[in-house]
């Protein structure tokens, strides 16, 4: 497995745990489902899965820095706002 560093992570780098889904595609799915995640169970579940994949990517494939910095890098490459990610994760913990 090729470990990526902050400076060379690209939006089209494959995401390991998602069987070939790319960060850009993950961000597009997030954009499509985030606004509906409170009212549509399927969208809610998709956002929760994306949160898990982002955490896995940050923990397993990004070298250097603390987890918050690695999460920010992955979220930035996917085009997912950190505030939305944090909100969705907080809601998942409450349910």
Structure, described:
- There is one protein chain.
- This protein is mainly α and 95 residues long.
- The protein has one domain (15-94).
- 60% of the residues lie in helices and 0% in strands.
- It is built from four helices and no strands.
- Helix 2 crosses helix 3.
- It is globular and about 40 Å long.
- It starts with 22 loop residues before the first helix and ends with a helix.
- Mean pLDDT is 81; it is low at 1-9 and 11-20.
Helix and strand topology:
Blueprint: H1 23-34, H2 41-60, H3 67-78, H4 82-94
Uncertain spans, ≥5 residues at pLDDT below 50? Answer: 1-9, 11-20
Helicity level: 55-70%
Order of helices and strands: HHHH
Rounded to an integer, what's the Rg over CA atoms? 13 Å
Shape: globular
Strand residue content: under 5%
Mean pLDDT over the full residue set: 81
- Structural class by SSE content: mainly alpha
Q: Enumerate how many helices there are, as a single number.
A: 4
Total number of beta strands: 0
Q: What count of domains describes the coordinates?
A: 1
* Major pleated sheet: none
The oligomeric state of the chains shown is single chain
User: Distance between termini?
Assistant: 34 Å
């Amino acid at each position: 497995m090729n470990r990526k560093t902050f400076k060379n992570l690209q939006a089209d780098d494959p995401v390991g745990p998602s069987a070939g889904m790319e960060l850009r595609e993950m961000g597009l799915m997030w954009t499509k489902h985030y606004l509906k995640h409170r009212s549509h169970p399927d969208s809610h579940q998709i956002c929760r899965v994306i949160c898990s994949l982002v955490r896995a990517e940050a923990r397993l494939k990004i070298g250097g820095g603390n987890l918050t910095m690695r999460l920010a890098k992955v979220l930035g490459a996917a085009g997912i706002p950190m505030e939305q990610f944090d909100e969705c994760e907080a809601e998942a913990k409450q349910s």
